[in-house]
Amino acid sequence: MIFFALEYRSPPRMIYETDVLRYANATFARRRIPRVIHQTYRTHTVPSIWNATVQSVIEKNLGEFKYRRWSHAEMDAFVKEHEPQFYRKTYITYRYDMQRIDSFRYVLLFYLGGIYIDMDNGCNRPFRDVIVTLESLEPNATHLAAFPQRDSFGVESDFLISTAGHP
What we know:
By secondary structure, the protein is an alpha/beta fold. The protein has helices spanning 17-23, 51-60, 72-82, 84-89, 97-111, 127-137; strands at 2-5, 13-15, 36-40, 66-70, 114-117, 145-148, 159-162. Helix 1 crosses helix 6 and helix 3 (72-82) packs across helix 5 (97-111). It has one domain (2-162). Strands 2-1-6-7-5-3-4 form a seven-stranded mixed β-sheet, sandwiched between helices. The protein starts with a strand and ends in a 5-residue tail after the last strand. The protein has six helices and seven strands; from the N terminus they run ββαβαβαααβαββ.
């Protein structure tokens, strides 16, 4: 089950397995979510503990999606280039790397869109299925965003889907 909000003014709704089964092969959906998967790590070398999950993400989506792994240095450069004021006043003042990594995800998806998934999360089916479902359920929405439902307050940042420019 994936929770998603279509636009900041739209009421959130749930996507169920029946929705994915119904729309996964739709060819009429207007493509709004970029077909790119983003992951981050300190360097470009994947720790062996995550080899299987990273490979599952790449293999299940090969050909349909571009794949981009961002190092910490690349994350810093991206935020500095796209949000220089935020970079100077906030980003570099964070005490913990995790704060920079989390904020990078939001800056990245705002400017480029696509899918962000943590390296410790694997993939059992192609992301195309859920993306086409999102695009089919709301054919007229300019912006789409999706994230897993959690019982806690806020947005989980381990798996995010968004159109570029989503407010």
